[in-house]
Amino acid sequence: MDRIRIVGRDAATPGIQAIYDSLEEKFHKVPNLFGTVAHHPPALRPLLELFTAVYEQTSLPPRVVELAIIRVAYALQSHYCLTMHKAFALQVGIEEAELRLLISDGPYDRFPAAERAVIEYAAVYATDSRTITDEQYARLREHYSEEQVVNLSLLMGLARLFGDMANSLHIPLDAYATKPGA
If you average pLDDT over every residue of the chain, what do you get? Predict the structure, then answer.
């Protein structure tokens, strides 16, 4: 059961409605997670700006972005984030078999070394980032620049925030994500 209602367009202030317009332009809908954040209007626009900066304005390959998000969502057991990002993962070339492996505890030998470094980094980042080893960081840096590692860390931090919010507030899946084939 949802703990927080989604702020619908009819209940949104004109400022939130304008943000909803931009979300609908981008996603063709207002994702429930953002409809939940709308309860705290001062946070919605900056959160969307951060989302755009780390998710869309990145030099990381889209496949790597989704590998990191799915791995964080799995570590958090965030059904909302896993379900919402499954379609994105498939769109960027992650195969069903790879998805099944990604939401397990490995081994991840099927993935190239650069992707494996991201998957391993994401798994530790999501559960206890203080325990990331120098060796794990070095494997990541073999394949990614400092700017990309910072972007990846911001991306995973945002994925963790979204996953924790979805879990704690019981944010319902968006209707489009529950349709067959979604």
Answer: 93
